[in-house]
Amino acid sequence: MDALIQAFGLVFDPFVLAVIAVSAVFGMFVGAMPGLTATMATALLVPVTFFMPPVPALGAIVTATAMAIFAGDIPAAMLRMPGTPASAAYADESYEMTKKGQLNLNMGVNLVFSVAGGLIGVAVLIAAAPLLAEVAINFSSFEYFWLACLGLTCAVFLTNADAVKGFLSLFLGLLLATVGIDPSAGFPRFTFGEVELMQGINFIPTMIGMFAVSELLRNAVSVRDAGHVVVQQVGNIFRGLGAVFRRYWLNFLRGSAIGTVIGALPGAGADIAAWISYAVSKRFSREPQKFGTGHVEGVVDATSANNSAIGSAWIPALVFGIPGDSITAIVIGVLYMKNMNPGPMVFTENPQLIYAVFLIFILANLIMLPLGWAAIKSARQILRTPRNLLLPVILLFCIVGSFAMTNSLYGVALMLVMGLLGWFLEQHGIPVAPLILGLVLGEMLEQTFVQSMIKADGAVLAFFERPIAGALGVLTLLIWATMLVRAATHRPAAIAA
Amino acid sequence: MRLNDALLGAILLGFAGWVWWMTTFFPAFPGQDYGPNLFPRILAAGIAACGAMLVLRGLRRRAPLIVLESWTREPERLLSFLLIPGAVLAYIFLSDALGFIPTAFLLLVALFLWFRARPVVALPVAAGVTLVVHWFFAGLMRVPLPRGVLDSLL
Fold first, then answer.
1. pLDDT tens-digit readout, A254-273
2. Which of A267, A333, A377, B127 has the largest CB neighbor count within 10 A?
3. Which positions 5-64 of B are in contact with A (Cβ < 8 Å)?
4. What is the b/e burial string over B4-40, where b = at least 16 CB atoms within 10 angstroms of the residue's CB?
5. Could you tell me which residue, B1 or A472, shows the higher pLDDT?
6. For chain B, which residues make up each domain, given as ranges?
7. Would residue A497 count as lying in a domain?
8. Which residue from A426, A492, A353, A450 is spatially nearest to A148, judged by alpha carbons?
9. Phi, psi of A245 (to 5 degrees)
């Protein structure tokens, strides 16, 4: 109880509230701009929040991501361009609604169900994280080894790309994580005598490169064809929402549940949650023939799902230090920087900070309602921001942000290399998310693997002897087997329904 | 730009071999079977396996060795693309000598103008953004941005 009161004090502080307000506006803007993603917003926020105490720093990330995932729906409906990948699943459906003259209803549904879905994800986070933490306190290196394996496997399994390329990305990420002093013997690996590389590949410049610079490279090609954006004016977005809710409340609950589960699974985030819940909605709908013609049903499912995934993605991140998606991969980096090392102990050592994060999550979802309304109303102005000015400014932010993380040009050079690598991988249909997860989890995976091997003295069966480790191990092996079968029979993932 | 799967796979096989070769220089510790070279070797083997599968796949499909998108044949678009890494490289090589403020301002102006912003807009926006970024990172957050030629003035 004391911790909760302390948490209120931490959150309702003028500076923290100001940071939340500014990040909310920033998140809305980034989310609403096609080509700028929520992950990019988070990566660019880290250098800015670097010198802040943990609560405002985490608050900025929580707020900006929640806003960005909703705001991505705005250009999806108005221009058929999803503002973030999380809105891609139902961008066509939303745009068809707009063409039928239902833009108001679509915006209202997106806003209100994003808020409600987000709150459900947060509720599950608040309920599940401390419970899981109590279980996790007894975990040994065997459990953590399998958890890391399971997380990395999910990252490959759930992306839509083919398994070979997914695993390739994962192995590259894990290999990048081996750069620097090795955890078992203290030997510098792959450092080529560079002092900067001894500490390993710095994570934030890598993220900025992979998620911001590579996006700039893709965008740069078309900046000079200035197109005029024509956006419809939005009227009363709340009319007719009651009827939608009465008719589709089950869809809302189902979408939120799917989103929460996918978000909590390591390695898959809001975008995959939206794809899967949209596909599920279509399969179980009484009128599947209406999907794709501007039907609100699938939008309810998917827009609830992507926002509920944001909150639940924090569950494995806080409890095990295993990211639920690429945004929480950054969050884990931030937690380490703030000396709040993720893991079950953080719930007993710093409960006030955890409660503060929960409170900010609730707060962020509540202020999404008025701010989202304002963003919808001013969409015309936001979408008119000249891209020829925006792109160079973002590039400058990337450079300064990366510089700030290492206080040297090494960060800038690393960002550039990773940006080009990220662009190259995407060109070849190789997903970037498994690489990022591999980079974050590489050290943990290697450490627990080598520790477990030494403890077991090479006996592989010891990896299955403890009950939870055994269950996790069997589950991981089952998923591997499924993937092998899938690869052998050459069927694409079931997600693209 | 898209390489044929077979070519990409071959590059990956070479890369994996290089990683394995690097690990042969890692020291072994007597009495400990699992040293610093174990994990990188597993990963090198994994990358090699993926590379081999890509080679097989590529040979079966017989796609052209490299596919270049249409924009790479339009000099204007190609230059727009190259300007992004070019600007970062310029920052890396110039910022220490020139200092952050002149470098950032010049980079922004150059990019703005190339992307067809009007000079009336480009110059003040570049100046404003440069000063705000400098104030925030150097002033507020104490990031040691290079001072360069303005050292005596600031």
1. 999 999 999 988 777 888 89
2. A267
3. 8, 12, 19, 22-23, 26-27, 29, 32-36, 38-40, 43-44, 46-47, 50-51, 53-54, 57
4. bbbbbbbebbebbeebbeebeebeeeeeeebbbbbbb
5. A472
6. 2-67, 71-152
7. no
8. A450
9. -65, -45
Asked if the structure places residue A190 within a domain, the reply is yes
Entry pTM: 0.88
Q: Which ranges of chain A have pLDDT less than 50?
A: 491-497
User: What is the number of structural domains in chain A?
Assistant: 1
Residue A372: give the domain boundaries.
2-489
A131 and chain B in contact, CB less than 8 A: no
Q: Enumerate the β-bridge partners of residue B121.
A: none
Whether residue A496 lies inside any domain: the answer is: no
| Cross-chain Cβ contact A389/B46 below 8 Å | no
Q: Is residue A494 part of a domain?
A: no
* Residue A149 sits at the chain B interface (C-beta within 8 Å): no
Q: Which of residues 62-101 of B touch A (CB under 8 A)?
A: 71, 76-77, 80-81, 83-85, 87-89, 91-92, 95-96, 100
In this prediction, residue B19 has a pLDDT band, given cuts at 50, 70 and 90, of: very high
Residue B66: beta bridge partners? B3
* A228 contacts in chain B (CB < 8 Å): none
Task: Identify the pLDDT of residue A222.
Answer: 83
> Which amino acid type is present at position A238?
F
> Distance, in angstroms, between A456 CA and closest chain B CA?
12
Q: What is the rounded distance in angstroms from the CA atom of residue A224 to the CA atom of residue B76?
A: 9
Residue of B nearest to A190 (CA): B22
* Confidence at residue A227, expressed as pLDDT on a 0 to 100 scale: 64
pLDDT tens across A330-375, in order?
A: 898 888 888 888 888 888 888 899 999 999 999 999 999 999 999 9
Q: What is the least distance, in Å, from the CA of B90 to any CA of chain A?
A: 11
Give the integer Cα–Cα distance in Å for A250 and A247: 8
- pLDDT the model gives residue B51: 94
